[in-house]
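input
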Amino acid sequence: MATQTMARPRDLSRRGQAGLPPWLNPAPPWLRTIKALVIILIVITMLYPLVYVIAMSFATPAQARAGVIFPTEFSLDAYRAIFNGGTVARGLMNSLWVTVVGTLLSLTVSSMLAWGLSRTKQVPGSRAILIIVLATMFFSAGIIPNFLLIKSLGLLDSLWSLIIPGLVSAFNMIVIRNFFMNLPDELIEAARIDGAGEWRIFLRIVLPLSKPVLAVMGLFYAVGYWNTYFNALLYINDAEKWPIQVVLQQYVLAGVQIPGAYVSSDQPPPPGITLQMAVIVLATVPILLVYPFLQRYFTKGVLTGAIKG
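output
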């Protein structure tokens, strides 16, 4: 009996291991080697264009004209020429202003709207307003009505035309609302018993607890504002107010010569390829530098706000 009793758990463990689904069984070594090689190949394929662009932006004129893939000598002439011209620097400042101001305003308005819509019992008509907000995800007025609206508001050739039309994203607001709905009701009620009003509850309790979702939604808004291109083409005709993405299109895709792009008066301008790659780096790297600081908030912010509630 003792032998049979001791053998039963062993048999059960064997049957349990044999009955695992195929995706839970450990893969053989040859299959794991293939997976590792495929992943390495994908990483190389993704990193190669970025490394090439950065390396070519620092290439010397001689190596750039020779068409080397990865230069062995580096120079800052392309960046000096770009900033001497002033056009790219103005584009960066315009994009930076639109990104910072737009992100702050969008987070403020979206969080306030999300908090009101999350209090369905305290706010009359909140469900109707929520349906109206959701409708904007599926229906839009179109290019011409939006252009006429911006024109009637007097926002043509203004950087505000790049902020106000996309001030609130329905998707981002819904994620923030779901996060607010997951906050403990007991905490809110305890604050009300202590005499806190709605504004104090929102500013002192709700917002500090919502840092993960606000950080992630702030990144989403910032990426959208930084990459603003189509609205700038529609609403801004003054080249002095172009964001960096329009500058990128003009001087990289359209091939327009950057005015004043020279290192010094006694030196010829750098090759066009190095200038183009330097503009691409300046338009791409700033927003990439923000991501590592907010990566730790992604799982807690997006998943909690999008799946629950």
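quick obs: Residues 1-7, 9-16, 305-309 have pLDDT under 50 and may be disordered.
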